[in-house]
Protein: YdcF family protein
Organism: Nocardia speluncae
Amino acid sequence: MTWAPARTRPDSRADSRAPRGIGAAILRWAGRLISGAVVLGLVLLLGTAVRVWQVARIEDYTRADAIVVLGAAQYSGTPSSVFEARLYQAEQLYEQGVSDLVITVGGKQEGDLYTEAASGKMYLTDAGLPADAVLAVETGSDTLRSIEAVAAAMKERGLESAALVSDPWHSLRTRTMARDAGLDAWTAPTRTGPAVYTRESQAHGIARETAALLWYQLTHFSADDFSYTAGR
């Protein structure tokens, strides 16, 4: 009887250990990447919200070629309370000598008799501004299109600098868009109206404008779905 060495069976546990180890490593790295992306997203979101809040506090009354009033809702030629607050601020800036020209901007919804720009001009002329001191740019259904229309109208007239009037939380987005359109722009927002009445309206405005600004910066398209009614 001859002796033969016993056959050894492959260690199946060792063979299966390696694939499981690689899979666990991949899962760990995937988890880290996802966690990092979430953290970066939160930092971007929070940083943008802080900038919206910071710029909302700026009031720059530097002399400009034009005071630009961003449109808001109007009813048969009567500005809404949001729009009226902006127009009143523009009137005050004009009286303080910030510019000899006020530009109102905004089109109209289906069925409206007046454009936002026209109703804004009527408000200002009724308040005592000369008719030739107010230019109505009667187009624009959102902030981006309104800014682009204003920029085109100003360039046609050789005007370059603009003091932008809107709600405080709307300031950063309007300024960003205006500068992208080639204007030398800064902000002098209203401090009255529904957009600033309560802490809730302020928080709502900051949240909406943060989303709208991020959307614009990512796509350079209009942010109608995000912009609140007061800011359009």
Notes: The longest strand covers residues 161-165.
